[in-house]
Amino acid sequence: MLRITVDGTAYEVEEGLTLLQALDDLGVLMKGVDIPHYCWHPKLSIDGSCRMCQVEVEGVPKLQIACDTPVRDGMVVHTGNERVRKAREGVMELMLVNHPLDCPICDQAGECKLQDYAFDYGQMHTRTREPRRALKKRVDLGATIVFDQERCILCRRCVRFCREIPGTSELAITQRGDRSTVETFPGKPLENDYSMNVADICPVGALTTRDFRFKVRVWFLEEVPGICTGCSRGCNVHVGVADDQVRRYTPRRNDEVNDTWLCDYGRMTYQEIGAPDRISEPAVRGDAGQLVGTTLEQAVECAAQLMRTAVEKEGPGVVAALASAHATNEDLAALRGLLAALGSETHGVPIVTGPADALLIRPEKAANAEGARVAGFGEPGLLLDKIRGGGVRVLIVLGHDIIHEQFLGSPEALAALDGVILLDTHRSRLEQVAHVVIPARHLAEKGGTVTNFEGRVQAVPAALEPAFEAVAEAQVLARIASALDLSISDESERKRETD
Ligand code: SF4
Ligand code: SF4
Ligand code: FES
Where in the sequence is the domain holding 63, given as residue range(s)? Predict the structure, then answer.
């Protein structure tokens, strides 16, 4: 370890790092030690092009760029003295010579580094009279990203991202001097599974996602920590909430899980939360064979009655459960607790699989596949055999992955059961055979813990309330247990302690 002193404070840092990397590793960069930077990004190669991160290093005659200056033992650094300040003001003046005066109509306003640093280092008046350069506005770089060439400060973060992270290299800087701009190659749009990350890392309003641009001003957003539910990686996200709706997911840095990235598919799964096909009302199957809306209390009583009748007639072994790999560990513990209290050992979990890559995307398409396994839920094959053989009369189902083509393909195999009790977030064909349907909350609406494919248990709070009456599956299951005069608290408590 080396000892360095920054603005009078001594730090111990690892050898071989640059000053910005060392301060970032210490967790003090922009959190106590403010060194403005545009082109440097903790997960990309060093570019050293913006010159905004200049600092004074004692014993070195010229100012140094902190992003590309290696730390050395005994180094003494000043990050905010008058000399440094003047240099940054000069950099900002040059950057703003050609930048449009667009902030009021720019979608990045409120989370723009150029805007932030202009407050700290900008001049009140321009010293140039020449017209600002006119470049192309609203350029479609691909299906997901819109580009405003005039706003680009040529930090090359987006170019390096495409080259170094997905490895697709769609973007390049073309032309020279004040005609330089970012372009795609002819006939090769920005098109990769991680394309929308370029909008996150663009420090200005040059790159915006087609999905979010001009939908809501960012200062109206409340950013709540969340977990993407698209696969078993469990990427950390900021859930952006405005007007009781989720408006976007953006990456939340976690170097152990997703660095600072999200895949495009996972990013867009926020749309599931406010989707029009959410199940919003409890329902029970009426005498005419149709599902009829009812209250949660009546749905719970109806579910309990189906289970009570089956147990009285044929014993607890005929009640079974299909868990969901989308449910939280707390929901799964409640389901195990209910089954244990009932005396049934018949259960399983369907986990849908799909394409994967070596970067983030995992084959299991649910956030809590590992949590379901740890909770004791195995492959659903034996349970499905038992259903086909007539050994199950009542089935509790969390979610509808069981009718995915990788499992049943259709709900018909469940049609002969005396009772199908469905707790689910979204409408599906499974409702055709359900006797009781109870709306469930999305992870963003209930919070809780999920376990990613590496066994990392991650906790998130609820980000918003659902637009309709719904409680978490664990609470529904507890109410069903209560209606049956059973207690599942011990199992839930044991699970919490294990976590
Ligand atoms: S588009 Fe954004 S990220 Fe790309 S070079 Fe320009 S300012 Fe940097
Ligand atoms: S890799 Fe998986 S967890 Fe991460 S954003 Fe994509 S779908 Fe979500
Ligand atoms: S951040 Fe150091 S030169 Fe750009």
Answer: 2-93
Q: Vertex 247, ends 427 and 328: CA angle to 5°?
A: 55
Cut 0.90: pTM above it = yes
CA 337 – CA 479 distance, rounded (Å) = 12
- Please indicate, yes or no, if residue 125 is contained in any of the structural domains: no
Residue 171 near ligand 1, beta carbon < 6 Å: no
Q: How far apart are CA 381 and CA 320, in angstroms?
A: 13
Q: Which two tokens stand for residue 87?
A: 């240099």
Tell me: do 371 and 449 sit in the same domain.
yes
Q: Whose CA is nearest to atom 3 of ligand 1?
A: 202
Domain count, the chain: 3
Residues 407 and 454 in one domain: yes
Ligand 2 atom nearest residue 234's Cα: 3
What is the per-residue DSSP string for 40-77?
Answer: --TTS-----S-TTEEEETT-SS-EEGGG-B--TT-EE
Least distant ligand from the CA of 181: 1
Q: Per residue of the chain (499 residues), give pLDDT as tens.
A: 999 999 999 999 999 999 999 999 999 999 999 999 999 999 999 999 999 999 999 999 999 999 999 999 999 999 999 999 999 999 999 999 999 988 999 999 999 999 999 999 999 888 999 999 999 999 999 999 999 999 999 999 999 999 999 999 999 999 998 889 999 999 999 999 999 999 999 999 999 999 999 999 999 999 999 999 999 999 999 999 999 999 999 999 999 999 999 999 999 999 999 999 999 999 999 999 999 999 999 999 999 999 999 999 999 999 999 999 999 999 999 999 999 999 999 999 999 999 999 999 999 999 999 999 999 999 999 999 999 999 999 999 999 999 999 999 999 999 999 999 999 999 999 999 999 999 999 999 999 999 999 999 999 999 999 999 999 999 999 999 999 999 886 554 454 455 4
